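Thread: quick sanity check before group meeting

JM: Hey all, I'm pulling together slides for Thursday and realized we never actually wrote out the predicted structure for the chain we discussed last week. Dropping the sequence here so it's in one place. If anyone has concerns about the input, flag it before I start.
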Amino acid sequence: MDKFWEEYSEDLMDGYFRLVDNKKSLKSKYIVEYPEELARKLASGSSNKLSQIWKFYDHVLRIQDNIKKGDSLEFHKSELCELLPAVNYAKQRKTVTWEFERFIKSNVQCIYDEEDLKAFMKHFQSLIAYLPRQNQK
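JM (edit): ok, ran it. Output follows.
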């Protein structure tokens, strides 16, 4: 297994946060280091369509917006889980690569509460910010 994926998976299992002054703080790796490397991996030989990546981002954003309106994550858990077969289907259609599929699957399985969802959204936003716009469809 690629060293990056090994470290990334282990870190995700440990959670998005670290304790600073007895408060949860998002690990900066999820804003800079991991998104930058993920973007490189997604861009190489890219059959990842930017429109597909945005489709997944928008799906998670809708869930987060509903939670902000008062719904619980538990209420929307099935919608979050819809990402798993959707990314599998997108990979079969060759509109995303196995790396993006792994990104989605690894993160969805590590979302246990609303704070985790917010952390994932920030992580996903950072990934999109690092993706190269040229040669993307």
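AS: nice. The chain is about 65% helix and 5% strand. The CA atoms of residues 17 and 25 lie 5 Å apart.
JM: adding both to the slides.
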